[in-house]
Amino acid sequence: MPRRADGLPTLDPPSFDAFRKKAHEMLDGIVDHVEHLADGPAWRPMPADVRSAFDAPVPFGETPIEDVHAEFERLILPYGSGNAHPRFVGWVQGGGTPYGMMAELLAAGLNPNVGGRDHAAIEVERQIVRWMRRLFGFPESATGILVTGTSMANLLAVIVAKTKRLGAATRERGLAAEGMRLIAYTSTAAHGCVRRAMEHSGLGSANLRMIPTDAGHRMNLDALTAAIAKDRAEGHTPFLVVGNAGTVDIGAIDHLDALATCAKQNDLWFHVDGAFGSLGVFSPELAPKLAGLERADSIALDFHKWGQVPYDAGFLLVRDGEAHRAAFADEPAYLARDERGLSAGQPWFTDFGPDLSRGFRALKVWFTLKTFGVDRLGATMAETCRLAQVLEARVASEPTLELLAPVPLNIVCFRVRHGDPELADRLNRDIVVELQESGVAVPSTTRIDGKLAIRVAIVNHRCREPDLQALVDAIVAKAP
Ligand SMILES: *Cc1c(COP(=O)(O)O)cnc(C)c1O
After folding, report:
1. Does residue 151 have its Cβ closer than 6 Å to ligand 1?
2. Cα–Cα distance between 122 and 198 in angstroms, integer?
3. What's the 150 CA to ligand 1 centre distance in angstroms?
4. Which of 25, 53, 328, 345 is the most interior residue, by most CB within 10 Å?
5. With a 6 A CB cut-off, is 249 part of the ligand 1 pocket?
6. 297 lines ligand 1 (CB under 6 A)
C-alpha cells in the first residue's frame, strides 16, 4: 500500500513527481494514437488470446500504473470500435476530437457530481441549456438536461409528455388508476428507441402507432390525422407525436412545421427525435431543412454524433420547463435545498431527470462548442452532406451499384446489384463484413423496402472524399 511522507496509506500517488511523468507519457500515447489514426485499419477484430486476457481473475492486490497502462496499450487501444477513424461510416457515430478528450480529462480531475448543489459545473451545464434554447429558438422558460444519449432523452420526453397530460399526481397514482389509454404516434422510419421509450415508461409499445411514410421516408400527415381520429373515436387518448429530424436509416426530416400544426390542432405533445439531424440548425445551409423544429414541445439530440463531442453526450430540451420539472422533481430531507451554502442554486439537474449522481458531461460539450464555435461545427455538418452528394453521384455512375434511397442529408444507402433478391442480400452483407474485417472501411447495413442495403453515414468529421472513393473502389472490386 502506497504511503504518504507521514506514513499514512493513501490512494493518491506516493510521489506526484513520478505520477506527473507517467501521466504525461499516457497523454502522449493517446495523442499519438489520435494523430496517426488514419495509418491504421478502420477496425481490427480482437484475437482470441487478447480476448482471453479479460478473463484474468479479480485483482485483489496492487498493480503498478506502468503495468496497467502497458496492458491498456496492448489489449484495449488497438481494438477500439474505430469510430474515430476517417473511414468509419457505420451506423451514425461521431468521431470525437482531441479537445473534447482533454475536457474529459479535466472533468475527471475535478470529479464534480452534477446532480445539483451550487458549484461551477452546474453553471457550465446551465450555459449549455441557455445556448441550446437560443440556437433552437426556444423561450427563456425552456429547460434542458444532458443525458447519456437520445435513447434516454426520448424516454424522458415520453415521461414528461405523459405527466403533463395526466398531471403530476399520476407519479404517485400510477397508470392503472387513470382508466385511459394514452396513444403516441411516430413514423415507421422512427428509431427503435421510441418504441422502447413507450415500453420503459410503462405506456406499452402497443400504444405507439407507426404511421406510414412517403417515398422520402417522411411521415404521411393524412395517415397521422386519420389515425388520431380513429383512436379518439374508439375512446382512447392521443397525447404525443414524435417527429424525426434525420431518420436513422436515410436521414429524412419530417414535415416538422405541418406536424407542429397537427399536434396543436389535436392537443398532442410534439416531440422531435433530432438525434443527429437537429444540430443542423448550426449550419445556415442546413437550418432551412429543419423549419418547424422551433415549434416542438421538446427535442432530443446527441452532441456525440454530428456535434463530435466524445461519447456520451445526449441532450433533452423542453419548452415547458415547469412540465419538465413536474415530471421528476422531488426533495427528500437529505437533499434539502437552501438559500445559501452548497445546497443553494435551485433548481438542480436531478429535478429534470431520473439521475441523482451525474458526471460533468457539460465540460466536453462546452469545450467543443467554444473551441470550434457553432459556425465551424455547422460547416463540418454541411461538409458531410456535400460528401454524401459526391458519394451518391459516384454510386449512380457505377453500373454494378444501385442507389436504394434518396439522400436528404449525410447518409447514402446503396448496394451491389444482383438478379436474385436473396443472393443480393447475402452478397452485400458479406461485402460489408469483409470490408470491416480487412480494416479497409466500416460501413454498416440496414433494410430499405425489404432490401439489404450498404449504409454509409458520414458523421465523423475526419472522413474525406478519398476515403469514400476508396470505400466504393473496394465494394466495386467485390461485385460479381
Ligand atoms: C442514434 C439515434 C438514436 C439513439 O441515440 P443514442 O444516443 O444512441 O441513444 C435515436 N434516434 C436517432 C434518429 C438516432 O440516429
Report:
1. yes
2. 30
3. 5
4. 328
5. no
6. no
17-34 per-position pLDDT tens digit: 999 999 999 999 999 999
Identify whether residues 321 and 459 lie together within a single domain: no
Show the domain range for 459. 373-478
Q: Is 163 helix (H, G, I), strand (E, B) or coil?
A: helix
The reply to whether ligand 1 has any atom less than 6 angstroms from the CB of 150 is yes
Taking each helix axis from N to C terminus, what angle separates 120-136 and 361-397, rounded to the nearest 10 degrees? 40
- What's the pLDDT tens digit per position in 211-224? 999 999 999 999 99
Do 348 and 381 belong to one domain? no
| pLDDT above 70: residue 2 | no
* Candidate of 273, 293, 306 to mutate for ligand 1, largest count of ligand atoms within 8 Å of Cβ: 273
Any ligand 1 atom below 6 A from CB of 155 = no
Q: Is 275 in the pocket of ligand 1 (CB under 6 A)?
A: yes
Q: Are residues 313 and 266 in the same domain?
A: yes
35 within a domain of the structure (yes/no): no
Query: Do 135 and 274 reside in the same domain of the chain?
Result: yes
User: Does residue 306's CB lie within 6 angstroms of at least one atom of ligand 1?
Assistant: no
Q: What is the pTM of this model?
A: 0.97
Which of 42, 409, 352, 348 lies closest to 218 in space, CA to CA?
A: 409
Please list the residues that pair with 403 across neighbouring strands: 414
Pair (276, 335) in one structural domain: yes
3-state secondary structure of 47: coil
Residue 193 alpha carbon, nearest atom of ligand 1: 10
Q: Cα of 250 to ligand 1 centre, how many Å?
A: 13
Q: pLDDT for 82-118, tens place per residue?
A: 999 999 999 999 999 999 999 999 999 999 999 999 9
Q: Using a 6 Å cutoff on CB, does residue 276 contact ligand 1?
A: yes
Task: Assess whether 151 and 196 both reside in one domain.
Answer: yes
Ligand 1 pocket residue status of 302, Cβ below 6 Å: yes
Residue 7: what pLDDT?
80
Which tens digits make up the pLDDT trace of 301-352? 999 999 999 999 999 999 999 999 999 999 999 999 999 999 999 999 999 9
Residue nearest to atom 7 of ligand 1 (CA): 149
Q: Where residue 330 sits, what CATH number does that domain have?
A: 3.40.640.10
Domain count, the chain: 2
Mean pLDDT (whole number) for 145-157: 98
Question: Is 347 found in the same domain as 307?
Answer: yes
Q: How far is CA 393 from CA 147, 148, 417, 472, in A?
A: 38, 36, 16, 11
Q: Which protein residue has the closest C-alpha to ligand 1 atom 13?
A: 248
What's the DSSP call for residue 285? T
| Residues 142, 250 within the same domain | yes
C-alpha cell at 75: 489489449
pLDDT digits (tens, 9 = 90+) for 433-478: 999 999 999 999 999 999 999 999 999 999 999 999 999 999 999 9
CA distance 382 to 291: 16
* For residues 355-377, average pLDDT: 98
